[in-house]
Each structure stands twice: as C-alpha cells, then as structure tokens.
Write a structure and sequence with these properties.
alpha/beta; Nucleotidyltransferase, domain 5; Rossmann fold; four-stranded parallel β-sheet; 10 helices; 10 strands; globular
C-alpha cells in the first residue's frame, strides 16, 4: 500500500495586527433618541479567530416606559423586577474588557452603552469597535441591503428570535466569524474605530434628538462629552501636515493637504471615512468655506448649510462612491522648496 506523501497546503497566516478577542453585542432600547435607555443586552465573547468562548444576557430596568414593545417584546411588567444598568455594569464590563466591541451598526450600540455607563458614573472598558456593516462593505459581500437578516442569510445563519438581544448577538457572531476569516485570508485591515468613553452625562430637555446611523458630530465639545442635540463624542484630529493645494478638479485626483468636508448620511461609517482621509494626507473640514477643496455628499440637492455654501463658493461636489475611489490614489504633496 502506497503512502500518500502529498503535502497539505500551509494555512494562511493570521494577521498579527488583528485583535485578540471580540465581544459581539446587541442592545434593545426604549427608542432611538439621546435620552432613551437600554432594556436588554446580549454579549457573545469570541476569541481571536472568532470562535465562541461564552455568552451572556440580561434584562435591564430602564426606569421609564419600555418603548416599542411590539419590536422587542419587553413590557413594563417584565422589566419591573430587572436590575438597573448600574447594577449590571460591573458584570457587563467583565464581558467587554480587553475585547473589540462588534455590533451591526456599532455606532448605535456603542453610543447607547457609553451613555448608560456615564449615567451610572462608571467607565466602559471598550476602547475599539467594529461595525459589521462596514466590514461587509470592505469585503464587498453581495448583499441586497445591509440589514442583519441579509447578512445572516448570506452565511446561512438562521434567526430564531429577531430583536431578542441574545439571539441577535448569536446571529451576528455566527455571521461575523466567516467575515473575519475572509478578511484574514485577504490580509484586509479591519475597519476598527476608537471609542471615547463619556465622563459625564445629564438627561435634559435638549436630549431628545433622534440617533441615526451617521449622526452629526459634536463639533468642538470637550472629548468625552456631548453637546445638546448631538450624540457622538468629538475626537481631536491631528493637524494636517501638508499645505492646502487648492480646489479639487473634477476628473483629476485628490492631492494631500486638500480640505474635505462631508454633508449628510454616508453608507460607510463617517468616522471611518474621516480616518481613511486623514491617513491619506487630507484635511477634514467641519464646515464649508472658500478654502474647502471638495464637499462629499450623497444628496447634493439637499438644501443643507454645507451644500448651499458649496454652491455659492463654487466648491466641487462629489458623492461617497467617487470619494472612496479617489481616496485610494491620493497624489503626494509637492515637496517644499
């Protein structure tokens, strides 16, 4: 009998820069506003390669009306005896510590958790998050849309209890594992974003603005705080090291130092877009002026302050898809004399 000496193909090396663990999270809430509360939370802990290590679930008493019961199924009676967030914060921190928070539309889950921790006068241990919507886009998965059910269907994951925090976290964990493996095989840089915990919080009359996936930034508010009507903490940007070369010329390439402004919703997380632009040597402008090189918007017809100013100044306007394409070929700044 002949022995088979055929050597198996060596496994693809796992990227050394990838995180050592993940916490796949889903929270159900009383609504989408800045003063809404968490009513349940589910966490799946995964190791560096996406294998499940443990899972955890809890109800949370929101100390208010539970909101859309027809969505999450949790009534006031069911939540009356549940622990307050402050009572589960320490346990939740153990589940999140030293892991990247993974969620579907992670900006929302992270913002809800950050506010709950701040209300409880506690600090979340989360330092980075990964949105599976952004990862799906990076992988160019052939999805009809970016709903969790579409991502689950793509990988053949069966949902058992939609909008139940633990089952949503399970479904996402099962869909995240093959996405992570695809990214590793391709040597793809994961779309990780830094998380700045809140240091203080107060619910007030101005705290009822709705939260959208790509909500506005909080301008120049102190890091770790929120200005009324906003929900995303400000991030101090490094100064652009290159001089502004002027306006973007349609049909040509972006040049390092150009001032880029964004307006309206983007399909890729806004922070991710801005991070990539800064890494490419561009300057992120929070408003449109005569010095702005280009405005990026998916709705140029919207009469926002930025689009109106861009029109008055003759500032070139491009959409997100064009910007992403240009971002991969930014021309180096001209050497200084």
């Amino acid at each position: 009998m002949l022995e088979d000496h055929t050597a198996a193909a060596p496994p693809t090396p796992w990227p050394a820069a990838y995180p050592e663990g993940y916490a796949v999270v889903d929270v159900e809430t009383t609504g989408l506003a800045r003063d809404d509360r968490i009513v349940s939370a589910g966490v799946y802990q995964l190791d560096a390669r996406g294998e499940v290590q443990d899972h955890w679930y809890t109800l949370v008493n929101p100390e208010r009306d539970p909101g859309p019961v027809w969505i999450h199924g949790l009534t006031s009676d069911m939540l009356a005896g549940a622990p307050l967030f402050g009572e589960i914060a320490a346990t939740l921190s153990e589940k999140l510590a030293d892991r990247v928070l993974v969620a579907h539309n992670a900006a929302f889950d992270w913002s809800m958790l950050a506010r709950e921790y701040a209300r409880a006068r506690a600090t979340t241990p989360v330092r980075q998050r990964l949105c599976t919507i952004a990862l799906s886009k990076e992988l160019r998965l052939p999805l009809p849309n970016h709903k969790l059910e579409s991502l689950a269907a793509h990988y053949g994951v069966v949902q058992q209890r939609a909008h139940h925090a633990l089952d949503d976290a399970r479904v996402l964990a099962e869909a995240f594992r093959p996405s992570l493996a695809l990214a590793a095989r391709a040597g793809l840089r994961l779309p990780l974003l830094a998380c700045q915990p809140l240091t203080e919080w107060s619910d007030g009359p101005s705290a009822a603005s709705p939260i959208g996936y790509q909500g506005g930034r909080s301008g120049h508010a102190p890091a770790g705080s929120y200005r009324p009507g906003t929900w995303r903490p400000s991030r101090k940007r490094p100064a652009c090291p290159y001089p502004n070369p002027g306006r973007y010329v349609p049909g040509e390439q972006l040049i390092q130092g150009m001032r880029v402004a964004f307006s309206g919703d983007t399909s890729v997380d806004r922070e991710l877009l801005e991070d990539r632009a800064i890494e490419a040597g561009l300057h992120i402008a929070t408003s449109v002026s005569r010095l702005t090189s280009v405005l990026v918007t998916n709705d140029p017809g919207a009469a926002t302050s930025k689009t109106v100013k861009a029109a008055s100044f003759g500032t070139p306007v491009i959409d997100e898809a064009a910007f992403m394409q240009l971002l991969s070929h930014v021309v180096p700044a001209a050497p200084s004399a």
